[in-house]
Specification:
290 residues; alpha/beta; TIM Barrel; 2 domains; hydrolase activity; ACMSD; carboxy-lyase activity; Amidohydro-rel
Length: 290
């Protein structure tokens, strides 16, 4: 396996249950060590570890403390409830960026500008969820009339409802406005704007500071490879490998992506851009070209 920069993996606690997590304990440390074991197995040399509600940002801080050579921390920020000055705290704690998801308004609303302005000033990366939010049930393969699936679907819907958000607030087009207003802000859109690839690719093509990650598993991988987006619509310089998956699945995900990108016809340098180098340059692990 080639060197890998995992640019989007969550601390292994359910995002929608994280707010109820109140303490760091022996189980937290076990989860960290288990995650590291699986990342090392996949030849991940750097990983952007995402925080969450409750104590999860502090858990990421603990992971960075235990494995400083591996983890780069991204603190979860609630841009509808947090004060922008909290970014100073996370910067002082060693976090290199922030993760934003489920806002109550469009990402590019002016009320959110203080977060982006300060992140730009602090040289902190901002990772945005972009595209349609999934569900606990996949109605491409499952029947909406199956009574057994109603309850798990309703349970997920009730969790999302607590955020007072929807996919319409997280369209990739909003990153275009943010990029123009804050040209030195390093912006990553997750999932290549799932369902809105043409817009995502167009923005990445003409906005120097906007990149997209490949997280999303088999669905997004199939869309990218079958449509042959890389090279035709989006450069290998603009994509970052990311699994957004469970620790146990990272090895297989890395292996499949490497095989797919090679079969796709990309050269070793292009594959290295996606799997490691682009993210390493964004986060200052590697020098820029020239």
């Amino acid at each position: 396996m080639k060197r890998v920069f995992e640019s989007h993996i969550h601390f292994p606690i359910d995002m929608y249950e994280a707010e109820f997590t109140k303490k760091i304990d022996a189980e937290t440390l076990r989860l960290i060590d288990h995650l590291v074991e699986n990342l090392v197995k996949a030849n991940v040399v750097k990983a952007s570890l995402l925080g969450g509600r409750g104590k999860v940002n502090e858990m990421v801080k603990e992971a960075m403390k235990r494995y400083p050579e591996l983890f780069i921390g991204l603190a979860y920020i609630d841009i509808d409830k947090d004060n922008p000055q909290i970014l100073n705290y996370y910067k002082d704690c060693g976090f290199k960026g922030i993760k934003i998801i489920c806002p109550n308004s469009n990402y590019d609303e002016e009320k959110y500008y203080p977060f982006y302005e300060l992140a730009e000033k602090l040289n902190m990366v901002v990772l945005f969820h972009t595209g349609v939010i999934g569900n606990a049930v996949d109605y491409l393969v499952d029947s909406p009339f199956d009574k057994r699936l109603i309850e798990p679907s309703r349970e997920f819907e009730s969790k999302i409802k607590r955020f007072n958000s929807s996919s319409r607030f997280m369209l990739p087009i909003y990153l275009d406005n943010i990029a123009l207003k804050f040209p030195e802000l390093k912006i990553i859109g997750a999932h290549l704007g799932y369902g809105m690839y043409d817009i995502s690719c167009a923005i990445a093509r003409f906005r120097r500071n906007v990149f997209f990650d490949l997280s999303g598993g088999d669905v997004i991988r199939r869309h990218i490879t079958e449509r042959r987006l890389i090279g035709k619509e989006i450069s290998s310089y603009k994509l970052l490998y990311a699994s957004d998956g469970l620790p146990e699945r990272v090895y297989d995900d890395v292996k499949i992506w490497e095989e797919e990108l090679s079969r796709y016809g990309l050269c070793d340098n292009e594959i290295d851009n996606i799997m490691y180098l682009n993210a390493a340059r964004i986060y200052g692990v590697e020098e820029l070209e020239g």
